[in-house]
Amino acid sequence: MSNMPAIQRRPIISGEVASRNAQGIVRPAQVSARFSLRLPASAAEEVANVSGLQIDLPINTCRATGDCISARLGPDEWLLLGPETQTESLAREIAKGLEGRFFSLVDIGHRNVSILVEGNRAREIINGGCALDLDDPRFPAGSATRTLLGKAEIVLIRSVSREHYRIECWRSFAPYVYGFLSEVAREFAGKEGPI
To answer: Which of 34, 144, 149, 193 could form a disulfide with 62, with the two C-beta atoms 3.0–4.6 Å apart?
Structure first.
């Protein structure tokens, strides 16, 4: 393997679509390290965090720690995100932190794509194809859930503010999801003025 070139991941989506005055922006996120962690709930409570990622979270919540995000999607399921440059070290540190416990850690960095929706109209842009109530009391900062956008399954993450959402979807659905969100953002641009 010494002379094998590194495999470069090519972006499947590109560009940025914004409504007038950047009240709603849809853009691809930077490539990330991404892991699916399966772990018994009792072990998550015992361990609390691994490699700086908090895992003793309530279901459908997330926590941002520096450049990393941990999102608990089910009783025994987490989506863990971090900088792509830390993929190998993050995997080692997580495995070391869970040593002696029954768990499954799968690198899904090449399977998923992240899309960011930001700005004052972010919630409305997402609601153009997602039936979830994204008002603050129902989906506050620190929320994460698996849901549908149009016809595609997504993971919707709101780790910080009401104006910043991260959408995770399978790579094969990314052009559809990105196109859908971009079209809704353009509709807002049409009502408010040109892009």
So the answer is: 144
Q: What is the CATH number of domain 32-108?
A: 3.30.70.1400
Do 152 and 169 form a contact (C-beta atoms < 8 A)? yes
Return the half-sphere exposure (C-beta side, CA atoms, 13 A cut-off) of residue 195: 14
Per-residue b or e along 164-174, where b marks 16 or more CB atoms closer than 10 Å to that residue's CB: bbbbbbeeebb
The reported pLDDT for the residue numbered 190 is 56
Into which CATH architecture does domain 15-31+110-195 fall? 2-Layer Sandwich (3.30)
Numbered ranges of CATH 3.30.1360.120 in the chain: 15-31+110-195
Distance of CA 181 to the CA centre of its chain: 15
pLDDT along the chain (195 residues), means of 10: 58 66 82 93 84 90 92 95 92 90 92 93 94 94 97 94 90 94 82 44
Instruction: Say how far apart CA 109 and CA 156 lie, in whole Å.
Output: 17
What's the one-letter identity of residue 157? Answer: I
Largest CA distance in the chain: 59
Q: What letter represents residue 123's amino acid? A: R
pLDDT at residue 11 in the model:
67
